[in-house]
Automatic annotation (TrEMBL), chain A:
Bilayer-crossing regions: none
Cellular component GO terms, alphabetical: extracellular region
SMART domains, sorted: ChtBD3
GO MF term list: carbohydrate binding; hydrolase activity, hydrolyzing O-glycosyl compounds
Biased composition (Pro residues): 174-192
Residues of the Chitin-binding type-3 domain: 199-245
Protein name listed in UniProt: Cellulose-binding protein
GO biological process: carbohydrate metabolic process
Signal peptide from the UniProt entry: 1-22
Keywords from the UniProt entry: Hydrolase, Signal
Amino acid sequence: MRKTIMLIAVALMTLGATVLTASPASAHGYISSPPSRQAMCAQGKVPNCGDIIYEPQSVEGPKGQRSCHGGVARFAQLSDESKPWPATSVGTSVTFNWVLTARHATSTWEYYIGNNRIALFNDNGRQPGATVSHNVSLAGYSGRQKVLAIWNIADTAMAFYACVDLQIGGGNPDPTPTPTPTVTPTRTPTPTPTSTTPSGTWRAGTAYAVGAQVTYAGASYRCLQAHTSLAGWEPPNVPALWQRL
Amino acid sequence: MRCLALVLAVAGVLGTSACGAGAVSHRHAGPAAGGTAPAAGPFNAADVMFLQMMIPHDRQGAELATLAETRSARERVRTLAAAIAATQGDEVRIMAGWLRAWRQPPEAEPHAHDAHGGLHATSPEEAVALAELHGAAFDTRFLNVLIAHQHNAVDMARTEVRTGRNPQVMELARRIDRSRSEQIRQMLTELSSWGVPGPAKGPGSGGRP
């Protein structure tokens, strides 16, 4: 029995078992800025995105597809053109920034507008750095355009897909109801918390300054360090931020 | 099956074999769940592994976040980073205390997690690379790296919620899932609020305070 166990254990380690960390939502990458559709969803700027809001990095499908959701059925909302995707205003070139949660060896990065491949970066199987940025020329394009970005993994048959809606060369993005071309954060914290007025009951999404006082679950707390509150940072859970009175 | 699960977990945690080690974890198991003592109640190898992985992950995130204090040009970024560093420091103290109380090593043996974590970890060189940047260049790279780092914390936390056993550790994991997800949302919002400077537009477009 013991020998069997040893064998199993050794086999697992040899195989590089991802058994334990492998979640269905495991890691990979997407474009954070200008925000890709999944980044818009993760920020809550587009309604009813489905599962993608929890795992914008997971749009992984077989190579060779040309859709925003990479053929992954549960992310089909990303290809729904009836959704109000905000477009980001850019000039005649743009820098795409990727968030990479797993640094897979990479064959190529491709960018398409319609059927035209507007840029190709060949990494020749290298492992990328912690982040990746590509400057891409948009010469010849104007108005609202949808860029499809594809990250082709070197050692698997898979690729990661991200669509970025752009408004090229100024003008109003159309047909989105979004306020301005430069996407305005909807729940941005106030830059500098100015008020030290006691703020009543603790709430998420509030900018608290040092000295602010709140109540939470019947107890009173004083803010020790300026921050914008968020779910998971309730006063009793974060003694670095809140002192119980 | 239960034995196999333990072997899986132990192989991941300690890089060693045998159900014996898993059984050690269970020696402390008891009906005392719900007590107020730190991490009271039973725990399993997945709880131990989560803590052993989350402690260095949190520490590294806090180190990255600390870089923003002197390098970021944006007060919102500095404020968020400082709060992340402080709260993760709290978490590390709590998690290390649990492992001590369970008489488990504070960290797994070196490289024990390489098989499933190597691709995902933020490399130590990244902090060095970030430390050389300032202003807008720092902010863009910093947020993209920290977003990825926190996505990975969410993945680890969800694995713990699925496979762990100790109620307090699982509650911490749920809180980590919530807080990191919200931080990611704030950071993505921050990134997209800067506009996208391109050569044709000039860097002025990113000039929000």
